[in-house]
Amino acid sequence: MKPITLTWVLAHEPYEVFHKAARHFASEVSAETNGRITIDVLDLPDYNKKVGTNLTTLPRDRRTVVDMVDSAIVDMASVYVNTLAEINHDLYAWGLPFLYQDAEQAQLALDGTIGRALLDGVASRSQVQPLVYTFSGGFRTMPSNVAIESVESFEQLRVRCTNNPVSLDMFSGLNATPVKISTENFASSLISGEVDTGEATYPRFFLLGYDKASKYINHTEHNLFLTSIVMNQGIWNSFDQETKEIFARAARSAALMERAESLASVAEVQKAAAGLGIPTVTMTAKERARFVDAVQPIYSKYETYFSPGVVQALRSIH
């Protein structure tokens, strides 16, 4: 194989969360291929400067980056799984509430047969080859101007959500008003009063300014927020089996690193936020059980929305 250089674009903020894992991936691939393959990791501002584009982290541009991978304009990218769900709707199923008890159980699903099948659904419908899931924070939290201590606390709240229809319907079912707002614009929407609370993750709390907009961190952990490392399928198919295995190992290694750092950020962010007078609010065991029960009807609705067997497979992980 002739020496090649691939371009990897980080398609979402905060870039700091993903730079380390991406560089780790690039270093491992370079070492295992004896320098034949190098990977140039760029955040969007650097990519814009390099090629003269004006991409942002807004949803339309995140999809543009996926399309650029599809058409081989960009070789690799880190993208939201919800963006990939625009290609394979079954990926929205990761937004189902309370699928898993903890991160270990979640990772069994992500790295198991059902997780791989959902990523393969993207590859079969496009020229985008997903390699692995990363946590991007993992379980969601809810920065807020309101302490959410019971199911009734959600009533009449305006809740910032992503474009995942599961989240939109879940909060509607709790008598809240879901509002679609990008991750990057959540802090400003809290400050302006456009929303009262919203879905987020711990690694973004300080990096995206949620600390300047919230009075509480509501530790709900109600569903997963995921990203994925993807590459152009034509490039992937051009690799021999040994090179594919090198990329697969590097992806796995990078994902485990990113997931561990996401999990470690929970206690770190809670402690730092408490020092600023922003407490973490956790429901009592009784109220959390009521919360879990209150959102169960969403499963009946989405059993037939997703491909046959998807919800059952996700729920069968133990």
List the SSEs and their pairings:
Blueprint: E1 4-10, H1 15-32, E2 37-43, H2 44-51, H3 59-70, E3 76-80, H4 81-84, H5 103-110, H6 113-123, E4 128-139, E5 142-144, E6 158-161, H7 165-173, E7 177-180, H8 186-192, E8 197-198, H9 204-207, E9 216-218, E10 224-232, H10 233-238, H11 241-275, E11 280-281, H12 285-294, H13 297-302, H14 310-315
Helix pairs in contact: 1-11
Describe the fold and architecture.
- With 318 residues, the chain is of the alpha/beta class.
- It folds into two domains: 174 residues, D-Maltodextrin-Binding Protein, domain 2 (3-Layer(aba) Sandwich); 129 residues, Bacterial extracellular solute-binding protein, family 7 (D-Maltodextrin-Binding Protein, domain 2), CATH 3.40.190.
- It contains 14 helices and eleven strands.
- A five-stranded mixed beta sheet has the order 2-1-3-10-4, sandwiched between helices. Strands 5-9-11 form a three-stranded mixed beta sheet. A three-stranded parallel beta sheet has the order 7-6-8, sandwiched between helices.
- Helix 7 links the parallel strand 6 and strand 7.
- Helix 1 packs antiparallel against helix 11.
- The N and C termini lie far apart (43 Å).
- The mean pLDDT is 95.
